[in-house]
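sry for the spam today, last one i promise. struct tokens for design, 414 residues
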């Protein structure tokens, strides 16, 4: 017979059976472990690549400092800029890179970087050998995930070449300003002096002319000779003053050019008679070449001044009995005015100097030549101011050829 059910067992609390999640398949466990390992490998690779990148950079000094400013790391750029090897500098305070007068900067820079996260400036820094270079410096505060300061990253770039170039530009600008001020002062002085000197010289010329005309009484031949000498000296001194004044105006850029069509044949015909008395005194013949006219686009008065200077020099340096040829020509939109002499000539080593101011080739105590040495310098500058040039060819003992080249005018290009 079946036993009656046990009522006490029915009243017991059911026992909780813990539920154990099923274990993942063996393949899933291996895959997750492999992913973790792969991520670790990638992190190691990235860290190694970053380390290699920093260590290999040569155009920037990149290194770390601890929280007190001592060097923790060193890259190739830092060694190139500052001259220290890693074993020589790691552990030393970075204030060693600052000149004595800037030793107050390192603590200030770290203080600013700590407070704001970054410090940046340009200034002089010192290499291991004591030499200085101009550096662009950036210091960045490094903090951990809790915000605690753990150190600083310092990046330095050598900008010495740029700094030197800037200083050179400033020095050049300063020299230009000083030169311009000096030129203005010189021009003002020469203008005033030329006025003060011209006034009495003009008076001398005027009274000499009056005496020569007999206003003051009869003039003997001896008196006339003396007066002619006075007048000649007055004109010579006046021409020197005019040369100096003209040169100062050219240097100061105060000359104005009135450019117009200029007949070079007309210039020759106007200037040659001015110089013929000097040439005749030395029995020098001046020949004007016949031929077609050449028309320049230039300032008429300044072309005449150049030709007068060239002819004066030719007469001065051509021995008695010599000859001088003057001619003009046009070609390919340019025109030329040439003066050829059979004078003493110019040595090849002196050709580069004859257009310099106050230079007179051939001047010596035994063979003095009058003048300031400004004629050719003025002529060369006047030619350049009109868009032309003045050239010379010469052989010692045979003579010289001076050629003025100018832009052609309307008639020359027709």
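last one done:
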């Amino acid at each position: 017979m079946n036993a009656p059910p046990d009522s006490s067992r029915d009243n017991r609390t059911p026992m909780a059976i813990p539920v154990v999640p099923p274990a993942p398949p063996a393949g899933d466990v291996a895959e997750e472990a492999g992913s973790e390992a792969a991520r670790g490998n990638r992190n190691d690779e990235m860290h190694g690549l970053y380390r290699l990148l920093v260590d290999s950079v040569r155009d920037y000094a990149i290194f770390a400092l601890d929280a007190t400013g001592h060097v923790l790391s060193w890259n190739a750029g830092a060694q190139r800029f500052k001259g220290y090897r890693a074993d020589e500098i790691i552990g030393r305070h970075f204030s060693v890179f600052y000149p004595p007068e800037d030793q107050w900067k390192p603590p200030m820079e770290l203080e600013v970087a700590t407070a704001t996260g970054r410090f940046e400036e340009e200034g002089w820094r010192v290499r291991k050998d004591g030499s200085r270079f101009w550096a662009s410096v950036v210091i960045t505060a490094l903090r951990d995930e809790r915000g605690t300061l753990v150190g600083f990253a310092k990046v330095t770039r050598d900008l010495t070449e740029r700094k030197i170039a800037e200083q050179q530009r400033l020095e050049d600008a300063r020299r230009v300003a000083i030169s311009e001020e000096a030129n203005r002062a010189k021009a003002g002085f020469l203008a005033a002096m030329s006025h003060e000197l011209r006034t009495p010289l003009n008076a001398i010329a005027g009274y000499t002319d009056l005496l020569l005309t007999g206003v003051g009484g009869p003039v003997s031949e001896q008196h006339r000779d003396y007066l002619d000498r006075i007048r000649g000296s007055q004109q010579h001194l006046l021409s020197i003053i005019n040369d100096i004044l003209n040169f100062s105006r050219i240097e100061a850029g105060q000359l104005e050019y009135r450019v117009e069509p200029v007949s070079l044949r007309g210039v020759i015909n106007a200037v040659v008679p001015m110089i013929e008395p000097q040439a005749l005194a030395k029995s020098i013949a001046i020949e004007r070449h016949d031929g077609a006219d050449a028309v320049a686009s230039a300032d008429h008065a300044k072309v005449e001044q150049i030709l007068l200077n060239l002819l004066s020099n030719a007469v001065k340096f051509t021995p008695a009995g010599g000859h001088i040829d003057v001619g003009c020509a046009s070609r390919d939109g340019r025109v030329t005015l040439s003066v050829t002499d059979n004078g003493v000539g110019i040595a090849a080593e002196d050709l580069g100097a004859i257009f310099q101011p106050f230079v007179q080739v051939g001047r010596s105590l035994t063979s003095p030549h009058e003048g300031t040495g400004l004629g050719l310098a003025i002529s060369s500058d006047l030619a350049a101011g009109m868009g032309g040039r003045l050239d010379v060819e010469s052989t010692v003992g045979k003579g010289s050829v001076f050629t003025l080249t100018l832009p052609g005018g309307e008639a020359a290009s027709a």
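The chain has eleven helices and eleven strands. ok im logging off now
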